[in-house]
Design goal:
Chain A: It comes from Vreelandella subglaciescola. Chain A: GO terms for molecular function: transmembrane transporter activity. The complex is a heterodimer of chains A (426) and B (185). Chain A has 426 residues and is mainly α. Chain A is built from 21 helices and no strands. Chain A has one domain. Chain B is mostly helical. Chain B has one domain. Chain B contains 6 helices and no strands. In chain B, helix 2 packs antiparallel against helix 3, helix 3 runs parallel beside helix 5 and helix 4 runs antiparallel to helix 5. Classes of the chains: A mainly alpha (426), B mainly alpha (185). At the A-B interface, helix 1, helix 2, helix 3, helix 4 and helix 13 of A face helix 2, helix 3, helix 4 and helix 5 of B.
Chain lengths: 426, 185
Amino acid sequence: MTLSIVITFLVFALLRMPLAFALGLASLVGLFVGDMDFSVMPQRMMHSIDNFPLMAIPLFMLAGELMVAAGILQRLVDFANSLVGRVHGGLAHVAILAGMVLAAVSGAAVASASALGSALVPSMREKYGTGYSSAVVASAANLGAIIPPSNAMIVYALMAGSTVSVGGLFMAGVVPGIILAVGFMGLASFISAKRRYPLSGGNLGLKHILVQTWRALPILLMPIVVVGGIVAGAFTATEGAAIAVIYAIFMGFFVTRQLRLSDLPKAMFNAAVTAAMVGALIAFASTMTFAFTIDLIPMQLASWLKDFTSDPQIFLLLVMGLLILIGMFIESNAAYIMLVPLLAPIAMSYGIDPLLFGFLFVMNLVVGMMTPPVGVLLFVMCGISNISLSELMKSAWPFIAFQYVVLAACFLFPGIVTWLPHALGY
Amino acid sequence: MKSRAPWLEAHASSPTQKRFLVAMLAIDRTSYYAIILAMGSMTLLVSAQVFARYVLSTSIDSADELSRLFFVWAIFLAIPHGIKVGIHVGIDAIAGLLPAAVQRQLTRVMALASALVMVTLVWLSLGAVADKWQQLMPTVPVTAAMFYIAVLISAGHSLLHLIAQIWQVEPLPSAPAAIKEGETS
Protein backbone atom coordinates (compact mmCIF):
# COMPACT_ATOMS: atom_id res chain seq x y z
CA MET A 1 0.00 0.00 0.00
CA THR A 2 2.75 2.43 1.00
CA LEU A 3 4.72 1.81 -2.19
CA SER A 4 1.70 2.48 -4.38
CA ILE A 5 1.00 5.70 -2.45
CA VAL A 6 4.59 6.94 -2.77
CA ILE A 7 4.85 6.10 -6.49
CA THR A 8 1.48 7.67 -7.36
CA PHE A 9 2.31 10.79 -5.37
CA LEU A 10 5.76 11.19 -6.94
CA VAL A 11 4.54 10.67 -10.51
CA PHE A 12 1.67 13.14 -10.28
CA ALA A 13 3.58 15.67 -8.16
CA LEU A 14 6.41 15.73 -10.67
CA LEU A 15 3.83 16.33 -13.43
CA ARG A 16 2.87 19.53 -11.56
CA MET A 17 -0.40 18.33 -10.11
CA PRO A 18 -1.11 20.54 -7.05
CA LEU A 19 0.57 18.73 -4.14
CA ALA A 20 -2.59 18.62 -2.04
CA PHE A 21 -4.55 16.86 -4.79
CA ALA A 22 -1.62 14.56 -5.63
CA LEU A 23 -1.72 13.50 -1.98
CA GLY A 24 -5.48 12.90 -2.29
CA LEU A 25 -5.07 10.82 -5.43
CA ALA A 26 -2.21 8.81 -3.93
CA SER A 27 -4.31 8.17 -0.82
CA LEU A 28 -7.21 6.88 -2.92
CA VAL A 29 -4.87 4.56 -4.82
CA GLY A 30 -3.40 3.38 -1.49
CA LEU A 31 -6.86 2.66 -0.06
CA PHE A 32 -7.76 0.73 -3.21
CA VAL A 33 -4.52 -1.32 -3.23
CA GLY A 34 -4.79 -1.96 0.52
CA ASP A 35 -8.44 -3.03 0.09
CA MET A 36 -9.49 -0.56 2.78
CA ASP A 37 -12.77 1.24 3.39
CA PHE A 38 -12.81 4.44 1.31
CA SER A 39 -15.08 6.17 3.83
CA VAL A 40 -12.00 6.70 5.98
CA MET A 41 -10.95 9.54 3.66
CA PRO A 42 -13.58 12.24 4.45
CA GLN A 43 -13.35 11.24 8.14
CA ARG A 44 -9.58 11.67 8.26
CA MET A 45 -9.78 14.91 6.26
CA MET A 46 -12.37 16.46 8.53
CA HIS A 47 -10.70 15.35 11.76
CA SER A 48 -7.31 16.69 10.63
CA ILE A 49 -8.80 20.18 10.14
CA ASP A 50 -11.15 20.05 13.14
CA ASN A 51 -8.28 21.10 15.33
CA PHE A 52 -8.23 24.07 17.74
CA PRO A 53 -4.44 24.80 17.57
CA LEU A 54 -4.57 24.89 13.76
CA MET A 55 -6.91 27.88 13.95
CA ALA A 56 -3.94 30.03 14.95
CA ILE A 57 -2.69 30.01 11.35
CA PRO A 58 -5.56 31.87 9.62
CA LEU A 59 -5.91 34.14 12.64
CA PHE A 60 -2.25 35.21 12.59
CA MET A 61 -2.55 35.65 8.81
CA LEU A 62 -5.63 37.81 9.35
CA ALA A 63 -3.79 39.88 11.97
CA GLY A 64 -0.95 40.43 9.48
CA GLU A 65 -3.37 41.43 6.70
CA LEU A 66 -5.15 43.88 9.01
CA MET A 67 -1.91 45.38 10.31
CA VAL A 68 -0.75 46.07 6.76
CA ALA A 69 -4.17 47.50 5.82
CA ALA A 70 -3.97 49.64 8.97
CA GLY A 71 -0.82 51.28 7.66
CA ILE A 72 1.58 49.97 10.28
CA LEU A 73 4.29 49.36 7.72
CA GLN A 74 4.93 53.09 7.19
CA ARG A 75 5.24 53.60 10.96
CA LEU A 76 7.63 50.66 11.19
CA VAL A 77 9.71 52.00 8.31
CA ASP A 78 9.79 55.49 9.89
CA PHE A 79 10.81 53.95 13.22
CA ALA A 80 13.55 51.82 11.66
CA ASN A 81 14.70 54.76 9.55
CA SER A 82 15.10 56.92 12.66
CA LEU A 83 17.34 54.25 14.23
CA VAL A 84 19.41 52.89 11.36
CA GLY A 85 18.59 54.99 8.29
CA ARG A 86 21.76 57.06 8.49
CA VAL A 87 24.32 54.24 8.48
CA HIS A 88 25.79 52.68 5.32
CA GLY A 89 23.09 50.74 3.49
CA GLY A 90 20.52 52.54 5.61
CA LEU A 91 17.44 51.47 3.67
CA ALA A 92 18.64 47.85 3.72
CA HIS A 93 18.85 48.06 7.52
CA VAL A 94 15.41 49.65 7.60
CA ALA A 95 14.05 46.70 5.57
CA ILE A 96 15.67 44.16 7.89
CA LEU A 97 14.52 45.89 11.09
CA ALA A 98 11.01 46.39 9.71
CA GLY A 99 11.02 42.74 8.58
CA MET A 100 12.00 41.66 12.07
CA VAL A 101 9.10 43.54 13.69
CA LEU A 102 6.67 42.48 10.95
CA ALA A 103 7.77 38.89 11.55
CA ALA A 104 6.75 39.31 15.17
CA VAL A 105 3.30 40.42 14.03
CA SER A 106 2.35 38.22 11.08
CA GLY A 107 4.33 34.97 11.45
CA ALA A 108 4.44 34.35 7.73
CA ALA A 109 7.42 34.82 5.43
CA VAL A 110 5.58 35.07 2.12
CA ALA A 111 3.09 37.64 3.45
CA SER A 112 5.98 39.66 4.90
CA ALA A 113 7.80 39.53 1.54
CA SER A 114 4.74 40.87 -0.27
CA ALA A 115 4.20 43.66 2.26
CA LEU A 116 7.86 44.68 2.59
CA GLY A 117 8.57 44.29 -1.11
CA SER A 118 5.69 46.49 -2.21
CA ALA A 119 6.52 49.15 0.38
CA LEU A 120 10.32 49.25 0.22
CA VAL A 121 11.66 47.92 -3.09
CA PRO A 122 10.52 50.97 -5.16
CA SER A 123 12.59 53.38 -3.03
CA MET A 124 15.45 50.93 -2.41
CA ARG A 125 16.00 50.08 -6.08
CA GLU A 126 16.77 53.76 -6.86
CA LYS A 127 19.76 53.66 -4.51
CA TYR A 128 20.90 50.03 -4.55
CA GLY A 129 19.59 48.45 -7.75
CA THR A 130 16.74 45.94 -8.03
CA GLY A 131 18.67 42.72 -7.40
CA TYR A 132 20.24 43.74 -4.10
CA SER A 133 17.05 45.43 -2.84
CA SER A 134 15.01 42.31 -3.57
CA ALA A 135 17.59 40.03 -1.96
CA VAL A 136 17.57 42.10 1.24
CA VAL A 137 13.77 42.18 1.40
CA ALA A 138 13.52 38.40 0.79
CA SER A 139 16.03 37.76 3.58
CA ALA A 140 14.21 40.13 5.94
CA ALA A 141 10.90 38.42 5.11
CA ASN A 142 12.39 35.00 5.80
CA LEU A 143 12.71 36.06 9.45
CA GLY A 144 8.91 35.73 9.55
CA ALA A 145 9.12 31.97 9.90
CA ILE A 146 11.85 32.05 12.58
CA ILE A 147 10.91 34.93 14.88
CA PRO A 148 7.77 34.18 16.93
CA PRO A 149 4.94 33.89 16.24
CA SER A 150 5.72 31.55 13.34
CA ASN A 151 3.06 29.74 11.34
CA ALA A 152 5.67 27.18 10.26
CA MET A 153 6.32 26.33 13.91
CA ILE A 154 2.59 26.01 14.58
CA VAL A 155 2.28 23.50 11.71
CA TYR A 156 5.36 21.62 12.98
CA ALA A 157 4.04 21.43 16.56
CA LEU A 158 0.67 20.26 15.30
CA MET A 159 2.20 17.49 13.20
CA ALA A 160 4.59 16.44 16.00
CA GLY A 161 1.69 15.91 18.41
CA SER A 162 2.27 16.28 22.12
CA THR A 163 6.07 15.96 21.93
CA VAL A 164 6.68 19.67 21.54
CA SER A 165 4.81 22.83 22.54
CA VAL A 166 4.14 25.81 20.28
CA GLY A 167 5.35 28.21 22.99
CA GLY A 168 8.61 26.28 23.40
CA LEU A 169 9.24 26.31 19.66
CA PHE A 170 8.46 30.02 19.51
CA MET A 171 11.10 30.66 22.16
CA ALA A 172 13.60 28.41 20.36
CA GLY A 173 13.44 30.79 17.40
CA VAL A 174 14.21 33.98 19.33
CA VAL A 175 18.01 33.80 19.64
CA PRO A 176 18.66 32.40 16.13
CA GLY A 177 16.22 35.01 14.75
CA ILE A 178 18.17 37.82 16.39
CA ILE A 179 21.47 36.34 15.16
CA LEU A 180 20.07 36.18 11.63
CA ALA A 181 18.78 39.77 11.74
CA VAL A 182 22.05 41.15 13.15
CA GLY A 183 24.03 39.08 10.62
CA PHE A 184 21.90 40.35 7.72
CA MET A 185 22.56 43.90 8.91
CA GLY A 186 26.30 43.21 9.08
CA LEU A 187 26.22 41.80 5.55
CA ALA A 188 24.21 44.79 4.32
CA SER A 189 26.73 47.20 5.89
CA PHE A 190 29.67 45.34 4.36
CA ILE A 191 28.14 45.16 0.87
CA SER A 192 26.95 48.78 0.99
CA ALA A 193 30.36 50.06 2.09
CA LYS A 194 32.12 47.96 -0.54
CA ARG A 195 29.83 49.16 -3.31
CA ARG A 196 29.87 52.74 -1.94
CA TYR A 197 26.11 53.05 -1.80
CA PRO A 198 25.01 56.60 -0.84
CA LEU A 199 23.86 57.40 2.68
CA SER A 200 20.13 57.80 3.17
CA GLY A 201 17.85 58.96 5.97
CA GLY A 202 18.00 62.15 8.02
CA ASN A 203 20.56 63.04 10.68
CA LEU A 204 20.33 61.02 13.88
CA GLY A 205 18.51 62.93 16.59
CA LEU A 206 17.29 61.77 19.97
CA LYS A 207 14.04 63.73 19.70
CA HIS A 208 13.30 62.26 16.26
CA ILE A 209 14.03 58.74 17.52
CA LEU A 210 11.77 59.25 20.54
CA VAL A 211 8.92 60.59 18.40
CA GLN A 212 9.15 57.69 15.94
CA THR A 213 9.43 55.16 18.78
CA TRP A 214 6.31 56.63 20.39
CA ARG A 215 4.42 56.37 17.07
CA ALA A 216 5.57 52.75 16.61
CA LEU A 217 5.06 51.76 20.25
CA PRO A 218 1.57 50.22 19.81
CA ILE A 219 2.97 48.01 17.05
CA LEU A 220 6.05 47.05 19.07
CA LEU A 221 3.85 46.18 22.04
CA MET A 222 1.70 43.75 20.05
CA PRO A 223 4.23 40.89 19.82
CA ILE A 224 5.11 41.42 23.48
CA VAL A 225 1.45 41.08 24.50
CA VAL A 226 0.63 38.20 22.14
CA VAL A 227 3.80 36.09 22.28
CA GLY A 228 4.32 37.01 25.94
CA GLY A 229 0.82 35.81 26.76
CA ILE A 230 1.35 32.53 24.92
CA VAL A 231 4.73 31.88 26.55
CA ALA A 232 3.46 32.84 30.00
CA GLY A 233 0.59 30.37 29.58
CA ALA A 234 -2.07 33.08 29.86
CA PHE A 235 -3.64 31.92 26.62
CA THR A 236 -3.10 29.37 23.86
CA ALA A 237 -1.51 30.18 20.49
CA THR A 238 -4.99 30.25 18.90
CA GLU A 239 -6.34 32.61 21.54
CA GLY A 240 -3.20 34.73 21.18
CA ALA A 241 -3.81 34.91 17.44
CA ALA A 242 -7.44 36.00 17.99
CA ILE A 243 -6.22 38.68 20.40
CA ALA A 244 -3.74 39.79 17.72
CA VAL A 245 -6.65 40.21 15.30
CA ILE A 246 -8.65 42.30 17.78
CA TYR A 247 -5.50 44.31 18.58
CA ALA A 248 -4.89 44.94 14.85
CA ILE A 249 -8.51 46.08 14.36
CA PHE A 250 -8.23 48.41 17.36
CA MET A 251 -4.92 49.79 16.04
CA GLY A 252 -6.32 50.31 12.57
CA PHE A 253 -9.51 52.08 13.68
CA PHE A 254 -8.28 54.12 16.64
CA VAL A 255 -4.48 54.54 16.43
CA THR A 256 -3.45 54.74 12.78
CA ARG A 257 -7.07 55.41 11.68
CA GLN A 258 -6.30 54.01 8.23
CA LEU A 259 -8.34 50.82 8.47
CA ARG A 260 -11.80 50.96 6.93
CA LEU A 261 -14.71 48.66 7.58
CA SER A 262 -14.58 47.72 3.90
CA ASP A 263 -11.03 46.38 4.41
CA LEU A 264 -12.24 43.66 6.80
CA PRO A 265 -13.99 41.31 4.32
CA LYS A 266 -11.04 41.34 1.92
CA ALA A 267 -8.57 40.67 4.76
CA MET A 268 -10.68 37.79 6.11
CA PHE A 269 -11.12 36.27 2.67
CA ASN A 270 -7.39 36.55 1.81
CA ALA A 271 -6.39 35.03 5.17
CA ALA A 272 -8.81 32.13 4.67
CA VAL A 273 -7.63 31.37 1.12
CA THR A 274 -3.95 31.49 2.12
CA ALA A 275 -4.64 29.27 5.15
CA ALA A 276 -6.64 26.92 2.90
CA MET A 277 -3.44 26.12 1.01
CA VAL A 278 -2.01 24.69 4.25
CA GLY A 279 -5.41 23.26 5.17
CA ALA A 280 -5.75 21.39 1.87
CA LEU A 281 -2.32 19.84 2.31
CA ILE A 282 -3.10 18.75 5.87
CA ALA A 283 -6.52 17.39 4.93
CA PHE A 284 -5.41 15.37 1.89
CA ALA A 285 -2.21 14.15 3.59
CA SER A 286 -4.18 12.83 6.56
CA THR A 287 -5.34 9.68 4.75
CA MET A 288 -1.81 9.05 3.54
CA THR A 289 -0.31 9.27 7.04
CA PHE A 290 -3.10 6.98 8.26
CA ALA A 291 -2.14 4.42 5.59
CA PHE A 292 1.53 4.74 6.58
CA THR A 293 0.60 4.02 10.19
CA ILE A 294 -1.42 0.93 9.15
CA ASP A 295 1.65 -0.29 7.25
CA LEU A 296 3.85 0.40 10.35
CA ILE A 297 6.06 2.67 8.25
CA PRO A 298 7.22 4.90 11.17
CA MET A 299 8.40 1.80 13.07
CA GLN A 300 10.06 0.28 10.01
CA LEU A 301 11.79 3.55 9.17
CA ALA A 302 12.99 3.91 12.77
CA SER A 303 14.31 0.36 12.76
CA TRP A 304 16.10 0.90 9.43
CA LEU A 305 17.67 4.14 10.66
CA LYS A 306 18.72 2.55 13.96
CA ASP A 307 20.43 -0.25 12.01
CA PHE A 308 22.18 2.36 9.88
CA THR A 309 23.39 4.54 12.76
CA SER A 310 22.89 4.77 16.48
CA ASP A 311 24.57 8.19 16.65
CA PRO A 312 21.99 10.99 17.10
CA GLN A 313 24.33 13.52 15.48
CA ILE A 314 24.59 11.45 12.31
CA PHE A 315 20.82 10.95 12.31
CA LEU A 316 20.36 14.72 12.63
CA LEU A 317 22.81 15.33 9.79
CA LEU A 318 20.96 12.82 7.61
CA VAL A 319 17.64 14.49 8.32
CA MET A 320 19.07 17.96 7.67
CA GLY A 321 20.57 16.83 4.37
CA LEU A 322 17.25 15.28 3.38
CA LEU A 323 15.36 18.44 4.33
CA ILE A 324 17.72 20.71 2.41
CA LEU A 325 17.18 18.53 -0.66
CA ILE A 326 13.42 18.37 -0.15
CA GLY A 327 13.22 22.07 0.64
CA MET A 328 14.71 22.84 -2.76
CA PHE A 329 11.83 21.16 -4.57
CA ILE A 330 8.77 20.88 -2.33
CA GLU A 331 6.66 23.60 -0.75
CA SER A 332 7.65 23.69 2.91
CA ASN A 333 4.16 23.07 4.37
CA ALA A 334 3.88 19.86 2.37
CA ALA A 335 7.21 18.74 3.80
CA TYR A 336 6.08 19.41 7.41
CA ILE A 337 2.86 17.56 6.88
CA MET A 338 4.41 14.50 5.23
CA LEU A 339 7.65 14.18 7.19
CA VAL A 340 7.14 15.45 10.74
CA PRO A 341 4.82 12.58 11.78
CA LEU A 342 7.45 10.13 10.49
CA LEU A 343 10.66 11.75 11.72
CA ALA A 344 9.78 13.51 15.00
CA PRO A 345 9.08 10.25 16.93
CA ILE A 346 12.33 8.75 15.58
CA ALA A 347 14.28 11.80 16.76
CA MET A 348 12.75 11.28 20.21
CA SER A 349 13.94 7.66 20.21
CA TYR A 350 17.47 8.92 19.52
CA GLY A 351 17.19 11.10 22.62
CA ILE A 352 17.34 14.36 20.62
CA ASP A 353 15.79 17.37 22.35
CA PRO A 354 12.38 17.80 20.63
CA LEU A 355 12.79 21.58 20.65
CA LEU A 356 16.18 21.35 18.93
CA PHE A 357 14.90 18.87 16.35
CA GLY A 358 11.78 20.95 15.72
CA PHE A 359 13.72 24.15 15.30
CA LEU A 360 16.32 22.60 12.97
CA PHE A 361 13.53 21.01 10.96
CA VAL A 362 11.77 24.37 10.57
CA MET A 363 14.94 26.32 9.83
CA ASN A 364 16.07 23.83 7.16
CA LEU A 365 12.83 24.32 5.29
CA VAL A 366 12.82 28.07 5.91
CA VAL A 367 16.25 28.37 4.28
CA GLY A 368 14.89 26.12 1.52
CA MET A 369 12.29 28.84 0.84
CA MET A 370 15.18 31.01 -0.37
CA THR A 371 17.13 28.25 -2.12
CA PRO A 372 16.59 27.56 -5.85
CA PRO A 373 15.08 25.91 -7.81
CA VAL A 374 11.81 26.07 -5.81
CA GLY A 375 12.49 28.86 -3.34
CA VAL A 376 9.01 30.30 -2.97
CA LEU A 377 10.31 33.59 -1.51
CA LEU A 378 12.59 34.07 -4.51
CA PHE A 379 9.63 33.71 -6.85
CA VAL A 380 7.53 36.13 -4.79
CA MET A 381 10.33 38.71 -4.96
CA CYS A 382 10.88 38.12 -8.68
CA GLY A 383 7.17 38.86 -9.18
CA ILE A 384 7.16 42.00 -7.03
CA SER A 385 10.43 43.42 -8.40
CA ASN A 386 9.97 42.19 -11.97
CA ILE A 387 13.45 40.67 -12.24
CA SER A 388 14.76 37.28 -13.30
CA LEU A 389 15.71 34.57 -10.81
CA SER A 390 19.34 34.64 -11.98
CA GLU A 391 19.57 38.41 -11.42
CA LEU A 392 18.11 38.04 -7.94
CA MET A 393 20.44 35.15 -7.12
CA LYS A 394 23.53 37.25 -7.91
CA SER A 395 22.69 39.42 -4.88
CA ALA A 396 20.87 36.86 -2.74
CA TRP A 397 23.57 34.20 -2.38
CA PRO A 398 25.54 35.89 0.48
CA PHE A 399 22.31 36.12 2.50
CA ILE A 400 21.43 32.49 1.72
CA ALA A 401 24.96 31.34 2.61
CA PHE A 402 24.72 33.18 5.92
CA GLN A 403 21.47 31.41 6.75
CA TYR A 404 23.20 28.06 6.18
CA VAL A 405 26.05 29.22 8.46
CA VAL A 406 23.55 30.01 11.23
CA LEU A 407 21.84 26.66 10.62
CA ALA A 408 25.18 24.87 11.00
CA ALA A 409 25.92 26.89 14.16
CA CYS A 410 22.57 25.85 15.66
CA PHE A 411 23.43 22.20 14.92
CA LEU A 412 26.95 22.43 16.36
CA PHE A 413 25.98 24.59 19.36
CA PRO A 414 22.43 23.51 20.30
CA GLY A 415 22.43 25.94 23.23
CA ILE A 416 21.74 28.73 20.75
CA VAL A 417 18.35 27.13 20.18
CA THR A 418 17.53 25.45 23.48
CA TRP A 419 18.90 27.85 26.09
CA LEU A 420 15.99 30.31 26.10
CA PRO A 421 13.11 27.79 26.04
CA HIS A 422 14.79 25.69 28.73
CA ALA A 423 15.40 28.79 30.86
CA LEU A 424 11.67 29.53 30.57
CA GLY A 425 10.74 26.03 31.70
CA TYR A 426 9.94 24.35 28.35
CA MET B 1 -24.98 42.62 -14.25
CA LYS B 2 -23.70 45.62 -16.25
CA SER B 3 -20.31 45.67 -14.49
CA ARG B 4 -19.58 42.02 -15.25
CA ALA B 5 -20.82 42.00 -18.86
CA PRO B 6 -17.40 42.90 -20.36
CA TRP B 7 -15.90 40.08 -18.30
CA LEU B 8 -18.31 37.59 -19.71
CA GLU B 9 -17.63 38.74 -23.25
CA ALA B 10 -13.87 38.51 -22.66
CA HIS B 11 -13.84 35.13 -20.93
CA ALA B 12 -16.63 33.14 -22.56
CA SER B 13 -16.85 32.30 -26.23
CA SER B 14 -20.17 30.44 -26.25
CA PRO B 15 -23.57 30.82 -24.55
CA THR B 16 -22.89 27.62 -22.57
CA GLN B 17 -19.65 29.04 -21.22
CA LYS B 18 -21.44 32.28 -20.32
CA ARG B 19 -24.11 30.38 -18.39
CA PHE B 20 -21.40 28.35 -16.67
CA LEU B 21 -19.51 31.50 -15.67
CA VAL B 22 -22.65 33.22 -14.38
CA ALA B 23 -23.48 30.14 -12.29
CA MET B 24 -19.90 29.98 -11.03
CA LEU B 25 -20.05 33.65 -10.09
CA ALA B 26 -23.18 33.07 -8.02
CA ILE B 27 -21.57 30.11 -6.23
CA ASP B 28 -18.26 31.91 -5.72
CA ARG B 29 -20.01 34.99 -4.36
CA THR B 30 -22.14 32.96 -1.93
CA SER B 31 -19.05 31.08 -0.80
CA TYR B 32 -17.15 34.38 -0.42
CA TYR B 33 -19.73 35.73 2.03
CA ALA B 34 -19.90 32.39 3.87
CA ILE B 35 -16.11 32.42 4.35
CA ILE B 36 -16.24 35.96 5.75
CA LEU B 37 -19.04 34.96 8.09
CA ALA B 38 -17.13 31.88 9.24
CA MET B 39 -13.85 33.76 9.75
CA GLY B 40 -15.55 36.61 11.61
CA SER B 41 -17.55 34.25 13.84
CA MET B 42 -14.45 32.18 14.59
CA THR B 43 -12.44 35.26 15.60
CA LEU B 44 -15.25 36.64 17.75
CA LEU B 45 -15.88 33.32 19.51
CA VAL B 46 -12.22 32.71 20.37
CA SER B 47 -11.79 36.32 21.58
CA ALA B 48 -15.03 36.18 23.55
CA GLN B 49 -13.84 33.01 25.26
CA VAL B 50 -10.64 34.76 26.44
CA PHE B 51 -12.67 37.78 27.57
CA ALA B 52 -15.14 35.57 29.42
CA ARG B 53 -12.36 33.65 31.14
CA TYR B 54 -10.31 36.61 32.35
CA VAL B 55 -12.89 39.36 32.79
CA LEU B 56 -16.09 37.50 33.66
CA SER B 57 -14.41 34.45 35.28
CA THR B 58 -16.64 32.13 33.31
CA SER B 59 -16.50 30.22 30.07
CA ILE B 60 -18.72 29.82 27.03
CA ASP B 61 -19.54 26.10 26.83
CA SER B 62 -20.00 25.89 23.10
CA ALA B 63 -17.26 28.38 22.09
CA ASP B 64 -14.63 25.73 21.44
CA GLU B 65 -16.83 23.47 19.35
CA LEU B 66 -18.53 26.27 17.42
CA SER B 67 -15.24 28.02 16.65
CA ARG B 68 -13.83 24.73 15.31
CA LEU B 69 -16.94 24.30 13.18
CA PHE B 70 -16.55 27.79 11.72
CA PHE B 71 -12.86 27.11 11.14
CA VAL B 72 -13.57 23.85 9.30
CA TRP B 73 -16.10 25.67 7.12
CA ALA B 74 -13.75 28.60 6.42
CA ILE B 75 -10.89 26.34 5.36
CA PHE B 76 -12.90 23.90 3.25
CA LEU B 77 -14.91 26.67 1.57
CA ALA B 78 -11.68 28.54 0.76
CA ILE B 79 -10.00 25.56 -0.96
CA PRO B 80 -11.90 26.05 -4.28
CA HIS B 81 -11.04 29.77 -4.30
CA GLY B 82 -7.41 28.68 -3.93
CA ILE B 83 -7.79 26.60 -7.10
CA LYS B 84 -9.08 29.68 -8.90
CA VAL B 85 -6.13 31.89 -7.91
CA GLY B 86 -3.57 29.07 -8.28
CA ILE B 87 -2.51 29.00 -4.64
CA HIS B 88 -2.29 25.19 -4.45
CA VAL B 89 1.33 24.72 -5.47
CA GLY B 90 2.93 21.92 -7.46
CA ILE B 91 6.47 20.97 -8.35
CA ASP B 92 7.68 22.95 -11.36
CA ALA B 93 11.19 21.56 -11.64
CA ILE B 94 10.47 18.97 -14.36
CA ALA B 95 7.23 20.15 -15.95
CA GLY B 96 8.74 23.63 -16.34
CA LEU B 97 11.28 22.23 -18.80
CA LEU B 98 8.58 21.16 -21.27
CA PRO B 99 7.46 23.34 -24.21
CA ALA B 100 4.73 25.86 -23.36
CA ALA B 101 2.06 24.09 -25.44
CA VAL B 102 2.78 20.76 -23.74
CA GLN B 103 2.67 22.47 -20.32
CA ARG B 104 -0.79 23.86 -21.09
CA GLN B 105 -2.09 20.42 -22.02
CA LEU B 106 -0.40 18.89 -18.97
CA THR B 107 -2.16 21.44 -16.74
CA ARG B 108 -5.50 20.33 -18.21
CA VAL B 109 -4.68 16.65 -17.70
CA MET B 110 -3.70 17.31 -14.08
CA ALA B 111 -6.92 19.30 -13.59
CA LEU B 112 -8.78 16.26 -14.91
CA ALA B 113 -6.97 13.95 -12.47
CA SER B 114 -7.74 16.40 -9.63
CA ALA B 115 -11.38 16.50 -10.76
CA LEU B 116 -11.55 12.70 -10.43
CA VAL B 117 -10.33 13.02 -6.83
CA MET B 118 -13.08 15.58 -6.19
CA VAL B 119 -15.80 13.41 -7.77
CA THR B 120 -14.75 10.56 -5.48
CA LEU B 121 -14.68 12.90 -2.50
CA VAL B 122 -18.18 14.21 -3.27
CA TRP B 123 -19.45 10.63 -3.27
CA LEU B 124 -17.60 9.69 -0.06
CA SER B 125 -18.66 12.89 1.72
CA LEU B 126 -22.30 12.27 0.85
CA GLY B 127 -21.97 8.93 2.63
CA ALA B 128 -20.33 10.58 5.64
CA VAL B 129 -23.09 13.24 5.82
CA ALA B 130 -25.81 10.57 5.71
CA ASP B 131 -23.93 8.53 8.31
CA LYS B 132 -23.61 11.42 10.80
CA TRP B 133 -26.98 13.06 10.19
CA GLN B 134 -28.66 11.62 13.31
CA GLN B 135 -25.72 12.41 15.58
CA LEU B 136 -25.72 15.74 17.45
CA MET B 137 -22.72 17.89 18.32
CA PRO B 138 -21.85 17.56 22.06
CA THR B 139 -22.52 21.17 23.12
CA VAL B 140 -24.87 22.47 20.41
CA PRO B 141 -28.16 20.87 19.31
CA VAL B 142 -27.06 20.73 15.69
CA THR B 143 -26.28 17.66 13.59
CA ALA B 144 -22.63 16.56 13.60
CA ALA B 145 -22.97 16.16 9.83
CA MET B 146 -22.41 19.95 9.62
CA PHE B 147 -18.66 19.26 9.66
CA TYR B 148 -18.92 16.86 6.73
CA ILE B 149 -21.22 19.14 4.76
CA ALA B 150 -18.26 21.54 4.54
CA VAL B 151 -16.13 18.78 2.97
CA LEU B 152 -18.96 17.92 0.56
CA ILE B 153 -19.46 21.53 -0.56
CA SER B 154 -15.71 22.05 -0.86
CA ALA B 155 -15.30 18.99 -3.10
CA GLY B 156 -18.28 19.98 -5.29
CA HIS B 157 -17.17 23.59 -5.64
CA SER B 158 -13.57 22.52 -6.32
CA LEU B 159 -14.86 20.19 -9.02
CA LEU B 160 -16.52 23.15 -10.78
CA HIS B 161 -13.28 25.17 -10.71
CA LEU B 162 -11.33 22.20 -12.05
CA ILE B 163 -13.89 21.81 -14.86
CA ALA B 164 -13.32 25.50 -15.63
CA GLN B 165 -9.59 24.77 -15.91
CA ILE B 166 -10.15 21.76 -18.17
CA TRP B 167 -12.53 23.84 -20.27
CA GLN B 168 -10.05 26.74 -20.23
CA VAL B 169 -12.49 29.37 -19.02
CA GLU B 170 -11.48 31.92 -16.41
CA PRO B 171 -14.07 32.45 -13.66
CA LEU B 172 -14.87 35.97 -12.51
CA PRO B 173 -13.36 37.31 -9.26
CA SER B 174 -15.07 36.21 -6.04
CA ALA B 175 -14.97 39.56 -4.25
CA PRO B 176 -17.72 42.01 -5.32
CA ALA B 177 -15.35 45.00 -5.49
CA ALA B 178 -12.75 43.14 -7.55
CA ILE B 179 -14.86 43.10 -10.73
CA LYS B 180 -15.29 46.87 -10.59
CA GLU B 181 -11.56 47.32 -9.94
CA GLY B 182 -10.68 45.03 -12.84
CA GLU B 183 -8.76 42.47 -10.82
CA THR B 184 -8.22 39.13 -12.43
CA SER B 185 -8.56 36.86 -9.43
